[in-house]
Write a structure and sequence with these properties.
Elements: E1 41-43, E2 46-48, H1 51-64
Antiparallel strand pairs: 1-2
């Protein structure tokens, strides 16, 4: 059984998955597929193929949530991260990037 607000990892090779929920409403995100054939970087809530992509994603996130002034060259009508539902907790600004270049983990 998986506790509320927890993440589970299921290794490659499963052909089925059974999910059982109680009477209360449930929100679930299921991501699956073949492993990517390239190295990726992960930092905070962003996944990218390069340091530059992560920097760009962070800049766009900060811009979309109003944590920086200016438009940083992004089209406000086409939000990368989508609209945030009303009534949810406030959006969290991304922390400052580290002072070193981001690298894939081995």
């Amino acid at each position: 059984m998986l506790a509320q607000d927890h993440l589970a990892y299921l290794p490659v090779g499963r052909s089925s998955l059974t999910l059982v929920a109680g009477a209360d409403p449930v929100r679930l995100l299921l991501v699956g597929g073949e492993p990517l054939g390239e190295q990726n970087l992960m930092w905070w809530n962003f996944v990218g193929r390069s340091h530059e992509e992560i920097v760009s994603y962070r800049t766009q996130w900060q811009t979309e949530i109003g944590a920086v002034d200016g438009d940083a060259g992004f089209d406000r009508d086409e939000l990368r991260f989508g609209a945030f539902p009303d009534g949810e907790p406030a959006l969290i600004p991304a922390p400052p990037l580290p002072t070193v270049r981001l690298r894939p983990r081995n």
